[in-house]
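Work Package 3 (structural annotation) set out to generate three-dimensional models for the target panel prioritized at the project kickoff. During this period the team completed the workflow that converts sequence records into discrete structure tokens, so that structures can be stored uniformly alongside our sequence database. As a representative example, we reproduce one entry of 199 residues exactly as it appears in the project archive.
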Amino acid sequence: MVLVLVLTALVMSGILALVNHITEGPINAQKEKSLADGIKAVMGGGELSVTANDTIKADMDKDGKEETFIIHKAEAADGKQLGAAVESTTQGFGGDFKILVGLDAEGNILGYTILETTETPGLGAKADTWFQKDQKGDIIGKNPQQELKVKKDGGEVDAITASTITSRAFLKAVNQAYMAYKKGGTEDAKTGATQVNKQ
């Protein structure tokens, strides 16, 4: 009986490993496509090329904990620099909260999309639309040079109803994306290898 159980476990492990290997490629391809679509969306749409993907590590809160940001620099079909889409992650109410923020050359917010969230459906999960253009917490066109805060903290942004923690986490991710974008070429950030990725 023990031998049968061991053999069954080995066979099932082999099958799971095979399935994982088969699905790994399509899953990664889907992630890359979703990211490419997200970059295009947050940069305002239209034809663009991603000219560099820089990994930046910096301690934004000065608490000794390094955060990792990925800056996708973009240019238009005519070669004009559009700015960058920045991946930024913070801790939300339910766990990691990862966003992609589009910033123009001056640091103004062009758009954003949520890449990963574990926030409560119906409450914190509203962040995907709440801060979009013409919505209650609209941040599009704002420049985080002046730190974005919810009204409860003395800022000008309307927090998601009954989800102040999520709203703070979202705005922190946006503010940090802006700082990473601005610090990208300074000594305060550690820059990883740049990969050219024309799309």
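Residues 185-199 have pLDDT under 50 and may be disordered.
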